[in-house]
Design brief:
Blueprint lengths: L2 H8 L3 H23 L1 H18 L9 H19 L23 H10 L2 H12 L4 H8 L3 H20 L3
Length: about 170
């Protein structure tokens, strides 16, 4: 991450903020889409960017921008999940064509399998494998111990494997 870019954003430079959003919009939107489904990803990603804009002046350690950003994203996603408690889970996600992580398996099957994994487990799968965050960063974002992240990853992998291998 370009730390100078973050400092420029903190100083209120619009060009820098545009550059920051351009660089990070796709990962944030993809995270929201995978957690909530495509219908709600746009609204939630806008909420995320508003929270980032408000919180950016208080960010002290620019080295920790990525976990900080995904902590904000997680908070917005959790709020959206809470507001829809009792409603059906996310619909199967349409694959994003330029998403290289989805090329490992058939995109439609992966998206459908991922949508069937419970939110807590889906969240760590997305953060760890698709956003390439460390176990420690995932633990920080989810506000749980590293051991909990490991157990959620283990359960998530088993559930995803089951969903991907079961016969339709």
């Amino acid at each position: 991450m370009d730390h100078l870019l973050l400092v420029r954003c903190q100083l209120g430079e619009r060009e820098a903020l545009t550059e920051l959003v351009r660089a990070w919009h796709q990962p944030v939107w993809t995270y929201a889409r995978r957690m909530l489904g495509p219908a709600r990803a746009d609204d939630v990603s806008q909420e995320i960017w508003l929270a980032v804009l408000r919180g950016l002046p208080r960010l002290r350690d620019t080295e920790r921008f990525r976990p900080w950003l995904f902590t904000i994203a997680r908070r917005s996603v959790v709020n959206a999940l809470r507001s829809s408690y009792g409603e059906p889970g996310p619909e199967p996600v349409e694959p994003v064509l330029d998403d290289p992580a989805d090329t490992l398996l058939d995109r439609v099957e992966l998206a459908a399998g991922l949508a069937k994994v419970p939110a807590r487990e889906r969240e760590v799968l997305i953060l760890f494998y698709l956003e390439d965050l460390s176990l420690e960063d995932c633990a920080e974002i989810c506000a749980v111990p590293v051991g909990t992240v490991k157990s959620r990853l283990n359960r998530a992998r088993r559930l995803l494997r089951t969903h991907l291998t079961e016969n339709p």
